[in-house]
């Protein structure tokens, strides 16, 4: 038995590669890192890795995390610049006895010392997005509340589970801003004896509820991943509306140690990818019906339009 679940259609190719590792009894850590790395390396996904959208100073700052569900070891980086694959750095940090979460210059020094690849992560395409956004706002720089972290939970045939996340964060965020993605319990959490969960959305609101940990806690109590996701998202969404008048975008995925999975979201248009020993890598679209999230397999037309829109040429406005 094995399985992997990931946020957003952009994870499909990575999940496909990971599934090949898992089929051959490969390690869940290797599989999840391979899958995330493929998303980081693809320049047309503007919310993760190379080609990720910059902050208000037109610098690409990346956040990433990795967690081993057997040992609960965690590694994370925040606001790191000019390194190609932050998820690899995060995994390396998870092997350290202390100093597991490094940010900014400290993360960059660690990455350099350990031989990770330096790379200018700001692409010409991202510069055009920045220019156009600035012009739309008449140079009043405000962060765009994007919602596109890649987060994954993985289960291998040895019953080991892992989690990993990677993002460039809010478009035009303030320099040094770090969201929920590298924060244990908020952006991700996994325990091989139970299962794992990962979030994508407005980090400032996801962190108000430690939603990923809550889902794992509820699965420990016997809830199916789908029930746990829906209950956690519904609760934090209602709580934020009650206390603050509104709730930011948030979508959660989960996978338990039986290979069962679930997803819940408070937005329209969310997609996720699943592969298991009985399910080929499949993209699902989420809809709301009678207060519950229901899933349908993405059509080929939807898949074609997804890639067309993301790879279409850009022009400065």
Specify the biggest β-sheet: 9 strands, mixed
Mean pLDDT across every amino acid position:
95
Biggest sheet: strand arrangement = 4-3-2-6-5-1-11-12-13
Q: What is the count of helical runs?
A: 9
Calculate the terminal CA-CA distance, rounded to whole Å.
Answer: 51 Å
Q: Enumerate the spans where pLDDT stays under 50 for 5 or more consecutive residues.
A: none
Extended strand count: 13
* CA-atom Rg in angstroms: 18 Å
Q: Structural class, please?
A: alpha+beta
Looking at the structure, the CATH topology is Glutamine Phosphoribosylpyrophosphate, subunit 1, domain 1
Fraction of residues in β-strands: 25-35%
The total number of structural domains is: 1
What's the architecture in CATH terms? 4-Layer Sandwich
Give the % helix.
Answer: 25-40%
Secondary-structure element series: EHHEEHEHHEEEEHHHEEEEEH
Pfam family, one: Asparaginase_2
Protein name: N4-(Beta-N-acetylglucosaminyl)-L-asparaginase
Active site: 149
GO molecular function: hydrolase activity, acting on carbon-nitrogen (but not peptide) bonds, in linear amides
